[in-house]
Design a protein that fits this description.
The chain is α+β, with helices and mostly antiparallel strands and 317 residues long. It contains seven helices and 19 strands. The chain binds flavin-adenine dinucleotide.
Amino acid sequence: MDIFQMGNALAQNTGLRIEHGVSLKKYTSLHIGGPAALFATVHTLPQAQALLSAAHELSLPVLLLGGGTNLLISDEGYEGLAVSLRFAGCAIADDGLSVTVGASVPAAALVDHLVHAGRQGLEFAAGLPGTVGGAIAGNAGCFGSSFGEHLQRATVLDAQGNLLEITDPAWFRFAYRHSRLSEELALIVDATFQLQDGDTAELCQTAQSHCHTRRTKHPGKHIRTAGSYFKNLPPKNPGEWRRPAGALLDQVGAKQLHVGDAAVFEKHANIFINRQNASAKDVLQLEALLQARVYDAFGERLEPEVRFVGRRPHHRR
Ligand SMILES: Cc1cc2nc3c(=O)[nH]c(=O)nc-3n(C[C@H](O)[C@H](O)[C@H](O)COP(=O)(O)OP(=O)(O)OC[C@H]3O[C@@H](n4cnc5c(N)ncnc54)[C@H](O)[C@@H]3O)c2cc1C
């Protein structure tokens, strides 16, 4: 079966509009990436379930797109089915100290709601770009905390489209900027977080202070970026903090570097920006250049935090 026949089969089995060759650029905050062979948008759980099940039947690889704020998509695009998750009706439901939220809710909107309701726990993520689903999948974090630490339960679809009720967060195998979903396909539909009672004024102040730090240290909203490019390094000794990759990158002159339109942000050595028309190849070359400099200077291997999707170019240098 060729890709057009697969698209027709998906459309017939799901009733969804399946598009061919949709550019993935506008689905990512870096604004980089070629076309998806097949593309669909889902708004409801039954649609997502039908689509995953039909894609599984056809052995089609699936890429889930939340806010696209942690993705670098190959210039050649994606050879499977890209699914933009736009769950409607993903309201935030409060139940005492638990809050259940749809996966497509922006993480920052959830935090805003919680701090104003005097619920403590997720305020570290004030102003975090992207969706709740993406934040759980990548165990997003900052200011010493991460999403996985606060998750209580979740509704998930597995790669076959089976509906799973996850009541043990250990299922997710959370680690630093990592979860089980970094390795295998599964779709988060909604999630419940366990919170504490907090003082609204104090929580608002903390959230505002985090947003202020982001505004002063990170690129503005109009700038194309995926945030920190490399993971921070493991601590030297057990119990210590991770070591910021940005500190090493600064010392090897990262802020002066660019490859084509892929450049290091002038105020933060671990943030890459797309100045205008950077390609994924440019970004990967900048990545390799910085990895080599840091390795030569410090013997440390930097690992990307941004998820690369698709086929890598053959000649990276
Ligand atoms: C300016 C800026 C600052 C940032 N600061 C931080 C920071 O402080 N800390 C941090 O950790 N990250 C940071 N990021 C990265 C990014 O915001 C987070 O990783 C965010 O949580 C990604 O969410 P998303 O919805 O955009 O996910 P996407 O980029 O769309 O997807 C990321 C991964 O999650 C998967 N995914 C998305 N939705 C779902 C779902 N519903 N079910 C299953 N899998 C799903 C995707 O398939 C993909 O593998 C920053 C990014 C920017 C642009």
